[in-house]
Inverse folding.
């Protein structure tokens, strides 16, 4: 339910921002607006302004601004009657440069909104996991994962992805994310020697990861009530040094050791607390919900909430926008060249899950997610595909070069091509969503 609400709020805001851009620029150039619609199909409710009908429609996967003399901003110009051409309030009567600006305004407003939303999120405070800015030292390798099959081991330090340096987990995550569905070569430093390891990156890397996790110290960050850990006297901040005499170097080693012992036997934990080494004995308890034996502890994650001043937030926002613009450009290029699998694309279900998780994390994270989707929406609409804003701009540029309107039949065929491309893409991403849910 949270995902649905978060999705509808996000989509409603982003569509309104987009269509508001078209609306304001059209008004600025004196074009009469007949309908301002959030959503498609049958109106849920509507009201009449001075000359414009404002409505919210049933299907929330888009919107439109219907201008006098043109069916909608996202369809080719039709019916250029002599009356419309001579009417100064008609979209058709306007110079091509004004039409292009009206078409460009929707994506522009999405990009501007992204910059503002990023900045507000930075001012509220962004949660930054401490490990994301640390070197890529592997703390755990999941059994039967692509990483284990490739030969990656705990305490390996990954320094390059396809001969491109990676200094932090953040850089590593971004680079491997762009290689979803492909095989990459990781340069790994193991015991002071560099080796190259080929790893197959899963197509849906958000659902199935490479199978590695960062090095997490064996420090207790949470103790569940009424568990063996609480009864034994373990405390937050205790560092686990050994289990039944076997040394522990990371949290994952501790978990593996715990699972290897007989569940009926008592365990002796050697811990470090306030500079002193202590010995604590406890016996795991079976948890019927988790269907396994537990002692009731979880690790300590160092998370920093960083807040920025107004000017710092906007500076960070612009940097983040430029960074993501480059990343989106690489994804689009990769989709065209085949370097990025089309199976990585997500549809409405994926966006709903993404927005729901972001909202549960906090308002700053939700704003960050909304800004990211808004940025993608802005650039997507600038692609030169008929029926998108970029397609209309491209059409008007061609007409400016040849100094005459394209034939109506040509515009009609271009519209069919555009709808076919978008329709096929929409069917594919929804199919991807269904497969993810089924998996």
């Amino acid at each position: 339910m949270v995902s649905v609400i978060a999705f509808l709020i996000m989509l409603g805001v982003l569509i309104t921002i987009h269509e508001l851009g078209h609306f304001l620029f059209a008004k600025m150039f004196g074009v009469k607006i007949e309908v301002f619609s959030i959503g498609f199909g049958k109106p849920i409710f509507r009201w009449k302004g001075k000359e414009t009908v404002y409505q919210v429609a049933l299907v929330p996967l888009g919107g439109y601004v219907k201008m006098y003399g043109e069916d909608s901003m996202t369809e080719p110009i039709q019916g250029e009657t002599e009356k419309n051409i001579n009417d100064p309030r008609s979209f058709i009567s306007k110079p091509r440069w004004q039409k292009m600006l009206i078409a460009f305004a929707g994506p522009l407003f999405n990009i501007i909104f992204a910059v503002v939303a990023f900045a507000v999120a930075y001012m509220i405070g962004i949660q930054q996991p401490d490990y994301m800015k640390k070197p890529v030292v592997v703390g755990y390798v999941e059994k039967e994962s692509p990483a284990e099959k490739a030969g990656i081991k705990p305490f390996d330090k990954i320094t390059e992805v396809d001969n491109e340096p990676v200094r932090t987990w953040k850089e590593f995550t971004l680079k491997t994310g762009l290689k979803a569905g492909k095989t990459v070569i990781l340069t790994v430093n193991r015991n002071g020697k560099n080796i190259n390891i080929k790893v197959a990156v899963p197509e849906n890397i958000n659902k199935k990861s490479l199978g590695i996790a960062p090095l997490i110290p064996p420090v207790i960050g949470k103790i569940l009530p009424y568990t063996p850990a609480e009864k034994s006297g373990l405390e937050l901040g205790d560092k686990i040094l050994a289990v039944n005499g076997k040394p522990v170097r990371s949290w994952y080693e501790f978990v593996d050791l715990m699972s290897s012992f007989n569940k009926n036997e008592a365990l002796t934990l050697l811990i470090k607390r306030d500079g002193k080494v202590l010995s604590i004995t406890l016996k795991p308890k079976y948890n019927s919900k988790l269907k396994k034996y537990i002692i009731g502890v979880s690790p300590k994650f160092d998370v920093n909430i960083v807040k920025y001043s107004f000017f710092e937030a906007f500076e960070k926002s612009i940097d983040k926008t430029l960074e993501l613009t480059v990343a989106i450009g690489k994804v689009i290029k990769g989709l065209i060249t085949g370097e990025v699998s089309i199976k990585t694309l997500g549809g409405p279900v994926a966006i709903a899950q993404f927005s729901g998780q972001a909202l549960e994390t906090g308002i700053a994270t939700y704003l960050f997610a909304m800004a990211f989707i808004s940025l993608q929406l802005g650039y997507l609409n600038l692609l030169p595909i008929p029926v998108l804003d970029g397609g209309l701009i491209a059409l008007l540029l061609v007409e400016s070069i040849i100094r005459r309107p394209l034939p109506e039949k040509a515009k009609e065929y271009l519209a069919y091509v555009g709808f076919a491309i978008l329709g096929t893409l929409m069917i594919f991403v929804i199919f991807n969503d269904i497969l993810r849910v089924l998996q």
Q: What stands out?
A: The chain has three domains: 2-121+368-438, 131-214, 220-299. Residues 72-81 have pLDDT under 50 and may be disordered. The two ends are 20 Å apart (CA to CA). Residues 131-214 form a domain with the Pdz3 Domain fold (CATH 2.30.42.10).
